[in-house]
């Protein structure tokens, strides 16, 4: 019985990774920025959902593979490693906050708190990534910090979208019979 659940989680992790990759590839809106080439997408939203359903390990793997593979295949290969680290940090925060709140999937408040924590950590990691990217091209630390901060618009929009979309989609999936207990006996 345990191997069946592991296989199910592995299959769903692969599906989440594929959905994340395809979702970013098909639906992205580029934004101007001082540092990097940011765009609005739903990859982080889907990563949050993957972690909430599959737990840290499989959810982080799905996010890292989906987001990282997109970067590698779409001109962001030099910084794909930063995206993978961001996905793992995002997954860790979502997992910890979700566990602290006892996986209460019937409370919309719980889902909004998890989404808020995810949005905040995404802003922080995006800022850190922007600093590292700016330093990689030879700017000074002061310029990198300021440039990365001025480039956070896409991260802010993605964070707000995740904050609003994750609870709604999660509740819809629960209503359709996809509860977290199906993946975590």
TrEMBL record:
Sorted UniProt keywords: Membrane, Transmembrane, Transmembrane helix
InterPro entries referenced in this protein's UniProt entry, alphabetically: ECF_substrate-spec-like
Key word Hydrolase present: no
Transmembrane segments: 12-34, 46-70, 76-98, 110-132, 144-173
Pfam family of the protein (one): ECF-ribofla_trS
Protein name: ECF transporter S component
Gene source species: Lactiplantibacillus songbeiensis
